[in-house]
Each structure stands twice: as C-alpha cells, then as structure tokens.
Amino acid sequence: MPKALDCLQRQTFENFEAIISVDGGDTETADACRPFISDRRFRMVVHPKRLDWVGNFNWLLQQDSQEFFCYRQHDDTTAPEFFEVLLKTANKEPHAAAIYCDCQFSGMSKSIEIARSIEGEPLDRMFQYIVRLPNISAAPVRGLIRKAAIRQAGLVRSDEFRAALQLFGWLGRLLHWGNFRRVAKPLYYRMDHARSFTREYFSGREDWKLAVWTTMFTGLLDAALPLCSTPRERLFFQKIIFDRIVAYPTFHPSDERDSTEKLMAGCLARLQLERNTHLLDVKELPPVLQGLQTRVDKMKSIERSRAGRGIHQIIRRHQFAKLIHPRSRKQRLTYESRHLLDLLRRQIESMLRY
After folding, report:
1. Which domain holds residue 227?
2. pLDDT tens, 170-199?
3. Which residues of 63-93 are buried (b: 16+ CB within 10 A; e: fewer)?
4. How far apart are CA 190 and CA 11, in angstroms?
5. 0.90 cut: is pTM over it?
6. Percent of residues in the chain assigned helix, strand, coil, to nearest 5
7. Where among 171, 201, 231 does a domain terminate?
C-alpha cells in the first residue's frame, strides 16, 4: 500500500483527490495507509462490514468527484506522468467516456495488455466491443472515466459469484455515452499474483465457470439492447452475443457439442433467474437459436488462424454495415472500406511487433 500511495503523491499532475476505501474493517491496511492522510489530497474511509470488490467499487462511484474518476486496485501503480498524459488526451477527446493506456504486468506474467480504441456511433461502438470476445479487456476501467458517462452507466451489477464478470457489462454501458480511447504507452503497472481473484476464476470447476460465464451473456444483452431501435437490430445483437458466448467459453470441456447445449440452457436459465426475459423473450428465441451450432462450428473453424480471424471480421463488418445502412450501398462500402483499412493496419503492426 505505501508503494501504491506514494506513486499517487509523485504524479506530475497534482490537482486530484485520493479516496482510500478500506474494506471489511481491515485495521492492518488502514494503519499502512494512515501516514498518507496528512496529505490534504488524501482521505480514508474504513468500512466496518465487508463490501467485496464490487461493493467497494460501487461505493467509490457514488462519491463526489469532479470531471473524472480513476480507480486503483490495492497494489497497482503507474508512471508519474500517468494523469498528465491521459488528461492531455482527454482534453482533445471530449467525447471519450474512458481514456486509458497499456498495462505492463509483472509477477506471474510479464505481458503488456493492449485494448484498442473503440470509436464511432453508439451501436457501432457496442458492435466493436462484443465481437472482441473472448478478449474483452478491463483496461478502460484503469484509466480516466468521465463522471457523465458513469452517471449514465449506473453501478456494476452484483451476483452470487462475487461479480466475477459483471464489470464487462458495465463497460459496455459506458460505451452508450462515448468512445474508449487508448493511449499507446505502458504507463499502468499491475502485479499478477499467484493467488488472485482472476486466477481463482480460471482455475475453478468447469460447472462453476460455466455458470459465471452466463452472467456475461446477460450483462452484454443488458448493455446492447437499449441501443437497438428496431426488431432487426435486436435480433442481430442477440445473435452475435449468443454466438460469441457459446463459441468461447472460459473452460475446455471434453465434449464441445454437449458444452454448447449446456451453455445455451444455462444462458436462458440465467435470464429467468434475473427476471430479464425482456432481453430475449419467447417470441424472439426461435430465430436466435436457429442454426446456432452451425454458426458456432463455423466461427471456431475460421478463427483458428490469423487469416481466418481477419476473414471472419470482414464478414461480420459486412453484416453490420447492411444493418446500419440498409438502403445505401455507397454508405456500406464506405463503412466497410474504412474498417478494412484499419484491420490491415493492425495486422501489419502485429507482424512488425513479433
């Protein structure tokens, strides 16, 4: 904790307030933090009861703050210029809901996490976000988030699984307000612990992970469907969410076809449990499920190679272009060409990096 708080004190941008939220009456952590509250920018609250990460995060979201909110977990640190660099970008990008940088891991992993920017109209932003499954990144939550976007998104949903994947639905709701803007510098530093909440999830029982994964399904539906204004748009997003969720479970069962059926049933049961059947009602279900296994098999086959993934992205872009520009071939071609050039640029950058 002293290292994390000292990192904040050394920020080159100094005009901020740091709220230290200590969970569950943890006196040892509070004692480690107490020397820092002599700094007028720091204050500390010790919660007598356990809120867990999602309760603590939601409590922080509801505190008074200025234009931006920035969340730091336990021992995360950043470069001294973190605030300064991100704020400069934010000033140039008034329509960005979240401005974030690359994340350098240490400990169990030495990788750099990169989450590409997401820009465009709200429905387009949501499409870009969903088709990144299973590689949706939490990087935007580690940057600067505009309070106006938070007010629109609301709080992170809780569940009986310690909200293991609920953050991703919340990030989807942030996209209603504006873009996600990446700063291509590894200014955020994160320790990958051997016994972390994330690692506990990935090492858990297959049936438990399947149950948790269904909450991603409902979270993404909850984020995407309010943006849909026509039945055709609803059907498109219901299909791609179902396809991505079923195709990319976070476990590796021996019988994939049996897994598809279990996961499909689990997703529908989760809607019932949450009383969210308005997100996919009985009348909408038949066209969503029709040909699901064939779609999933094709997707898994085509995405086994970099070229295959590129082809699949082009196909999806074409389908989405027809959805948002149903009457204008010229607009569809313009949209597809722009994203094709972006795909080629990313492929070249990826090859150069390796």
Report:
1. 205-353
2. 999 999 999 999 999 999 999 888 788 777
3. eeeeebbbebeeebbbbbebbebbbebbeee
4. 17
5. yes
6. 55, 15, 30
7. 201
